[in-house]
Amino acid sequence: MAKHHVAATVNGDPVEFLCETHDTLLDALRDQLGLTGTKEGCGTGDCGACSVTVDGRLVCSCLMLAVEAQGTSVGTIEGMAEGETLHPLQRKFLDHAALQCGICTPGFLVAAKALLEKHPEPTETEVRYWLAGNLCRCTGYDKIVRAVLDAAAEMRGA
Amino acid sequence: MQEKVKTNGAVAFDWVGTRPLRPDGVDKVTGRARFGADLAMQGQLVGKVLRSPHPHARIRSIDTSAAAALPGVKAVVTRDDFKDQPSQLIPAGEQMINYRDVVRNVMAREKALYEGHAVAAVAATSASIAKQALKLIKVDYEVLPHVIDVVEAMKPRAPLLHDDLITAGVEPAPKAPSNVAKRVEIGHGDVVFGFRQADVVVERTFTTQAVHQGYIEPHACVASVSEDGQADVWCTTQGHWMVRAQCARLLGWETSKIRVTASEIGGGFGGKTVVYLEPLALALAKKARRPVKMVMTREEVFQASGPTSGATAHVKIGAKLDGRIVAAEAELKYQAGAFPGSPVQPGAMCAFAPYDVENVKVVGYDVVTNRPKVAAYRAPGAPISEYAVECVVDDIASRLGMDPIELRLKNAAKQGTKAAYGPKLGPVGFVETLVAAKAHDHWHAPLGKNQGRGIASGFWFNIGGETSASLQLNEDGTLSLTVGTPDIGGSRASMCMMAAEELGVDIDSIRVQIGDTGQLGFNFLTGGSRATFSSGMATVEAAREVIREACKRAAKLWELPEDAVEFRKGAVRPAGANAGKHAPLTLRDIAGLAGKTGGPIAGYARINAQGAAPSFGTHIADVEVDPETGKVTVVRYTAIQDAGRAIHPSYVEGQYQGGVAQGIGWALNEEYIYGKDGKLQNPGFLDYRVPVASDLPMIDTVIVEVPNPRHPYGVRGVGETPIIPPLAAVANAVADATGVRFADLPMSPPRVLAALDEARTRGTAKI
User: Fold this and answer.
1) Containing H/E element for B60?
2) pLDDT for A91-118, tens place per residue?
3) CA–CA dist B717, B646 (Å, integer)
4) End of a domain among B563, B578, B609?
5) What is the distance between the alpha carbons of residues B201 and A107, in angstroms, rounded to a whole number?
């Protein structure tokens, strides 16, 4: 069957790719565009490792068809730092040792960024519930939650 | 920040005990780090596996002709592509492996032994074509009766997995085959005599369910084989030398022909210490003459990799009125999955290891069932047996009206204790963890309504083993360090810190990489809590070789004997007044002169790291039980553990916290659920529920440091012990909150509610 042509914006850059009907946005990002920072942990929307934003909304890219990305603006982990400057969340994850193996880290960072854009002053409980869709098997979440709260405080200028 | 640790009251360390940023950190927060599925080789094909839909079936025939004829299919492999292996136990680190079973696990031969067992594999130009090809493979199965439960599997008329399996460890050897692969027994003294001395005896039977390691990154690899047989494998693994050895053996290729590169690894916890896809990808790549990439789905990960054993554990402990334990006995039955090799041996050895008991006997059974072959999972076997023991210890304390910490202190293993598993213990920090628990404000904090508090301890051996590392002094004085243990949780940082400590340089001047199998001598895998211990030891040795060589070069320049120079604070200096006045030569100076003084400078260590030392932990858990739904929530948690010495305290804390989260999952939610049809009903993260952020509180940590005298920086290894205490700490807390002793894990809401209802009828429930 003929492939579909999709044009979208990824991390601010115009992109075009060809995909099969059943390909997910995650497949397109990783296999067509070479953006392998977004990870596949389950393929069923249960682990959050594939978190990206689509027109500002946090989604599991494994649950969205690639063809649905037509005309949208997609944000991935590769677009989080600005030039050589890490996003405060990226810096705080390093400061707090909020990662061990690092496979879930891109998803957590993208999800946490979406949280802070919506709620700049979240409580610990709000952070925990917002990030409940992102699985981490290494850290027990303690240092991740601390890093997000610390980044939020810094971004508010507190 | 933790204060710098001082050795023998002398100078504080510059790096050890501090918290620098990890060297691989930026790559991991920007998405640049490349994990197993992140590499694409030019012209690669997609490999997929056909798996058995039956838990137990004889494979009469496999017809791959239609699949092979499908346009786009470049190779198909089945059992016929792998030579049978003789039955022979071969040491593979912590456990023995039998290649007769390994070859059957990677590709079913006579029978499929569990749902998800690999039966064939294809390589095609796209994923869709590969999937289509799988559907075209015709397998003629003769479906056989299956057995899932360990107790059922031990019964005389249970369906037999292996017609020739004779129980080992029984004299005389049984004549008939059974599903019991092995009986193990350890202990000392006389338990019959011991129980006669006891004033109080408690015995109970516990069950635990199979749980998966649950790494977020599925198994993945890419393999390429050239026309002259030179092979390259890129894969996510805890040990790429292990991958090389097993692939070479299974394929009958020479070791030197296979080069394995370890990708970044997205969690393993023991589950990435065996091969699944790699031999298939190599076989497909050789046939197709193109690279083949294979990635498991999450469903395949659950069905065909991991997990650890489900088990039953019967524990009996007798104590005197003063709390002294006089006898301890346990019987353990562990599921091995489809092939022999459950972790019942370490489970038996660890069961009573925290205690100094004169009369101990532990009997264990290794039992095959129609489940995936178990793989190592963090302190393999120990969480199960120690869970049962720590619950009974708690019951003894309450029967005696004793504080559970006091009871443990009274019986705690210490230096010189003859452990139940044999040797006398060296310096260990168990008592120190108990004292720290007693002093912790958590232990004394008030509890709320429907809440309870539990305490439990844990023991794990830790290991050393074969290790190589190289350290090169670059032309500009910076250093390149190569180690062979995949960095699964920040170990690169610890390696840099130990090297920087030895060399007196800034850690930023050292770049560390994980070498491939062609770059270093053999390395045993990252497991057994050995990476920081063993690769750290090798790194220190390599650094000392660089220092010795630097001293030699300076002595040559200064025309002094070698013992007239010394290395201090990152520079070679004349030693003493008689050596004359020479300005110190830094490593940078020496590096610049290397060409003129004898050539490149490097250190290379190849060791069998000895002297690994056990780590003890003691955990305190507070839970709240919802009387209406039976839901158990952990509301406060403190993990205390002896690290020997924490090289990078943040990552040591992280090990404690992560182990706690996995242990809580094991205690409360996680389990392999099978239907009557022998099929796994929850092969996904939605129904196999690992703890999420909103399930857990902050996890407080206390790092106790009783240095290991046999490591240059006192390291013990910390990764595995933290998963052991949570099962019993949570169970003891639930018992405290409800008045009901739960002997069966997981303590999921339906189970807790049913038990509460029953206890309410009997009037024994506290809530």
Assistant:
1) strand B57-63
2) 999 999 999 999 999 999 999 999 999 9
3) 9
4) B609
5) 51
Give the chain A residue whose CA is nearest to the CA of B214. A137
DSSP state of A82: B
Distances (CA, A) of B207 to A112, B214, B310, B384, B510: 39, 21, 7, 8, 49
- B752's CB contacts (< 8 A; 6+ apart) are B625, B630, B631, B632, B734, B738, B742
Closest residue to A131, CB basis, from B214, B217, B693: B693
Question: What is the complex's ipTM, to 2 decimals?
Answer: 0.98
Query: In sequence order, what are the residues at sequence separation of 6 or more whose Cβ sits closer than 8 angstroms to the Cβ of residue B281?
Result: B47, B221, B222, B223, B233, B292, B293, B294
Is the confidence at residue B311, as pLDDT, over 90? yes
Both B440 and B503 in one domain: the answer is: no
Alpha-carbon gap, residue B448 to B622, rounded angstroms: 10
Q: Which residues contact B628 (CB under 8 A, 6 or more apart)?
A: none
Is A104 at the interface with chain B, CB within 8 A? Answer: yes
For residue B291, give the nearest of B74, B72, B518 by alpha carbon: B74
The CATH number that applies at residue B669 is 3.30.365.10
Tokens at B637, concatenated: 């948690």
Q: Do A139 and B657 touch (CB under 8 A)?
A: yes
What residues form DSSP beta bridges with B455? Answer: B620
pLDDT tens digit string along B27-76?
999 999 999 999 999 999 999 999 999 999 999 999 999 999 999 999 99
Question: Hey, what CATH topology would domain A4-79 get?
Answer: Ubiquitin-like (UB roll) (3.10.20)
**Alpha carbon distance A99, B24 (integer Å):** 11
The answer to whether residues B601 and B651 belong to one domain is no
In which domain, by residue range, is B469 found? 25-33+464-609
Strand order from edge to edge, sheet including B699-704: B451-460, B615-625, B632-642, B699-704
3-state secondary structure of B719: coil
Give dist(CA A18, CA A15) in Å, integer: 11
Identify whether B496 is part of a domain: yes
A88-155 CATH, one of 1.10.10.10, 3.40.50.80, 2.40.50.140, 1.10.150.120: 1.10.150.120
A68 vs B: CB within 8 A: no
Nearest alpha-carbon partner for B611 in B356, B417, B427, B469: B427
Contacts of A42 in chain B (CB under 8 A): 298, 684-685
Work out the pLDDT band at A150, boundaries 50, 70, 90: very high
Domain boundaries, chain A: 4-79, 88-155
Rounded to whole angstroms, how far apart are CA atoms B265 and B236?
Answer: 5
